Amino acid sequence: MECTVSWTGAAGTRSGMGFVAETGSGHTLTMDGAPDSAKPENGGQNLAPRPMETLLAGTGGCTAYDVVLILKRGRHDVRGCSVKLAADRAEVDPKVFTKINMHFTVTGKGIPATAVERAIAMSHDKYCSATIMLGKTAEITTSFDLVEAA
């Protein structure tokens, strides 16, 4: 796996904190920093997600992917899956994630709650590289709602 991240500055200038990532699979992802009112040249313009937000989003994508795949492999009629992540970070540098809560909402027909619980646990404990990696610095908790599809 590879990725190239390049500083773009702000709106094509070489000031600001905009970046574009080009992934090995041929996709691009834009990132930006938070505005800095004290030193505008050191801040971003809030034009894209922060890098740490992108890391959190990637973790959500990784675990949701696992949950859907595990449920589908179990021949469950899964029709939707979302995960809302809420994270706390350390107060001082490096400001690593210290707590992450993942709340899943799984929609389907006739899916037993035990199957969803098992899929989340398998992702958390065995398959999701991002969750397992972030678990080295953060306490990760999970919960879920199961919605019966019409």
Keywords:
150 residues, 2 domains, 3-stranded antiparallel β-sheet, alpha+beta, 3-stranded mixed β-sheet, 33% strand, 3 helices, GMP Synthetase, Chain A, domain 3, 29% helix, elongated
Q: Give the averaged pLDDT, no decimals.
A: 93
Whole-angstrom Rg: 18 Å
From the N-terminal CA to the C-terminal CA, the straight-line distance is: 40 Å
**Share of helical residues:** 25-40%
Largest sheet: 3 strands, antiparallel
- Number of DSSP strands? 6
Order of helices and strands: EEEHEEHHE
Number of domains: 2
What is the overall silhouette?
A: elongated
Q: Widest sheet: strand order?
A: 1-2-3
The share of residues in extended strands comes to: 25-35%
- The chain-level structural class is alpha+beta
Low-confidence stretches: none
Query: For this structure, what is the CATH homologous superfamily of the largest domain?
Result: K homology (KH) domain
CATH class annotation of the largest domain: Alpha Beta
**Number of H- or I-type helical stretches:** 3
Q: What's the CATH architecture name of the largest domain?
A: 2-Layer Sandwich
- CATH topology of the largest domain, which one? GMP Synthetase, Chain A, domain 3
